[in-house]
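Tokens as discussed.
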């Protein structure tokens, strides 16, 4: 039977974010009083999927969640955001992913993820969604889901001529086979350096070159308030400056970037134009609390692009 067509497929992680606001990073062994606590939807994959949907793309998920209240929170979120959950598996007796997040006074954060049922996502789950993947325009993933699942999805995407985006977060060793299938990689600066194996004083260009040599087609580095930079082989680098914003919290800014990029590519923008949309959307995302709080609509992003 034919799957319903979507523009963007996300091989997705799902977490509930447990967010405490503290004055500064904790020292080892230290206890600090938090000024507030809240739970909110998270997971790099789900966040990017929501970003793409808010940018006007039709989005389908491939994910594995727990059969618990946190899993049901994900299903309710995706229903509200118009995201296709047909290939979300609820694993009986398992817990959903959880991210413990500390947000500091300057809006920066630290995150510890316990992926729960998401760890069980595998190539068979992707094969079950073959119809959806083979008919889409863009497939995206992060390193928060098992790489075997991402490799299976990217292989299907390549066979079907779809673009592949990888947000390499959290940074960790990547299979050589996966690099070869990545059209656009969206690391932040520290992920770029970790993945390249070069020291932090190496230039962005030098670090990107290492990943291009592994088979990645384009390395699009997010630079926080400084904007982003695009590196490809044989083409001059492209730098975009940031959109100045008052930062409330930066949770999900990278996911907003990747999801907005996916949506722009799916509606036919070229990579340099799509990067402008993603840069503007990510800047707006930090102006409100929680991963999804500031994630903008297509219209709000367009207004920001016109005013910048
Ligand atoms: O990128 C931000 C996300 O990382 C959070 O929502 C948290 O769940 C972790 O996955």
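Sequence:
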């Amino acid at each position: 039977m034919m799957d319903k067509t979507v523009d963007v497929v996300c091989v997705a992680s799902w977490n509930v974010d447990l967010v405490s606001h503290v004055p500064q990073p904790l020292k080892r062994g230290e206890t600090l009083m938090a000024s507030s606590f809240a739970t909110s939807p998270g997971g790099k994959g789900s966040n990017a999927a929501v970003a793409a949907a808010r940018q006007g793309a039709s989005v389908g998920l491939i994910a594995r969640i727990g059969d618990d209240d946190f899993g049901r929170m994900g299903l309710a979120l995706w229903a509200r955001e118009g995201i296709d959950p047909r290939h979300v598996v609820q694993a009986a007796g398992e817990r959903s992913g959880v991210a413990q997040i500390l947000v500091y006074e300057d809006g920066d954060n630290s995150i510890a993820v316990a992926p729960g049922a998401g760890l069980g996502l595998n190539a068979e789950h992707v094969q079950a969604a073959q119809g959806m993947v083979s008919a889409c325009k863009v497939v995206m993933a992060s390193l928060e889901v098992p790489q075997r699942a991402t490799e299976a999805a990217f292989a299907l995407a390549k066979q079907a001529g779809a673009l592949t985006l990888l947000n390499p977060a959290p940074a960790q060793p990547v299979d050589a086979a996966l690099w070869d299938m990545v059209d656009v990689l969206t690391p932040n600066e520290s992920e770029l350096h970790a993945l390249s194996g070069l020291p932090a004083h190496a230039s962005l260009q030098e670090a990107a070159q290492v990943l291009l040599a592994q088979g990645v087609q384009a390395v699009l580095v997010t630079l926080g308030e400084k904007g982003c930079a695009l590196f490809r082989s044989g083409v001059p680098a492209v730098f975009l400056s940031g959109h100045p914003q008052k930062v409330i919290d930066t949770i999900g800014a990278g996911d907003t970037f990747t999801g907005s990029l996916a949506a722009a590519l799916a509606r036919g923008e070229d990579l340099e134009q799509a990067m402008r949309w993603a840069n503007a959307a990510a800047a707006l995302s930090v102006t409100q609390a929680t991963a999804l709080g500031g994630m903008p609509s297509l219209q709000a992003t367009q207004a920001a692009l016109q005013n910048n």
